[in-house]
Amino acid sequence: MSTKTQEPVIARVSDLPTSEARWVTLKKIEYVDQVGKARTWEVAMRKTRAAKAGVDAVAMGNVLVHPSRPPATLIVIQYRPPLDAYTVEWPAGLVDEGETAEEAAVREFKEETGYDCSVVSVSPVQAADPGMSNANMQLVMVEVQLPEEDGERPQQRLEDGEHIETVIVPLAEFYDRLVEYAKRPRTIVAAKLFHFAHGMNFAQTNKYGI
Amino acid sequence: MSTKTQEPVIARVSDLPTSEARWVTLKKIEYVDQVGKARTWEVAMRKTRAAKAGVDAVAMGNVLVHPSRPPATLIVIQYRPPLDAYTVEWPAGLVDEGETAEEAAVREFKEETGYDCSVVSVSPVQAADPGMSNANMQLVMVEVQLPEEDGERPQQRLEDGEHIETVIVPLAEFYDRLVEYAKRPRTIVAAKLFHFAHGMNFAQTNKYGI
Asked: Which stretches make up the Nudix hydrolase domain (chains A, B) (predicted)?
């Protein structure tokens, strides 16, 4: 699916004045803590949160269901400039103004993977990285029903500049495959994806007899 | 364990010039993408990453093992100014200069919970929020062996200004309890913790017959 023709390369990293930033910003929070003491905290924020939804982003935990093949999940691999690396993630995207989490999930999943999906569940709002930012997200679990003869993989509908490789992984191999991806050069697995797969593996091995 | 005496309150939120920020910063990345096109990306970064470890933070996925009680995990609840809310997380902390992930995990776990723990496994480095920042972390799984008569909960060793409530949750109730926490006012569950518990629940219900 990828149109990759060369390895991305960083030319320059420079300080970005807060006043010039378009997508993210820095804020200083002055607050009074639990014992009445005045304190400050520095926070990074997205400038794009849609007011209505009150949530920055959705990620799509997904299961591809096929009549005869084992259940699988689709992961996306893309170059992420903040890390100068290829990340392994579930499909995700920002929630647009006026959209619900469900609508954003179905739209973004179609764009990034080409598949139509149905929503199975929507998680509570979760804090993406609570010590550093106010970024938040919802995990939307979705299902794709594949026909017996599903033929070629559907076309993505990527925006200009998006280069996203899609990989289908049987759920039974999910955790082990992520561990393998993490060993590849210039590759890093996203924490949310790894934690979900780690939780599955933890439950399946059931060392503690839960 | 909490010394909370009043609800924290934010007095003021102001733009923080990048040049004045001490803990986080903004950078502009200029890069050449896969098809040879020059692009830019805005990124938030911590200014505290220890050079040796190359990783910002550790989180401690933990199991409290008791001779006769069911296996449980300890979660921490604390006010997080970036979200103006109480977050539910696993104990976590920044890796200090010269520390390994294992050392940081044992030290931070003792500080936040009062318990001595042993390290069971260390995950690959994971990207905390790859679209927005270069922040990364490792999930260190740890175990605490409790004696039959474990008496009072041990004392935390918190730094000045830290007010961290610890709660012990049986692993069998982990996911359901997080869903309940997410319904409380001014409370948000951290994405990594929720994803781990969600993965456990996904494997345990095993809707897809993995």
From this structure: 55-192
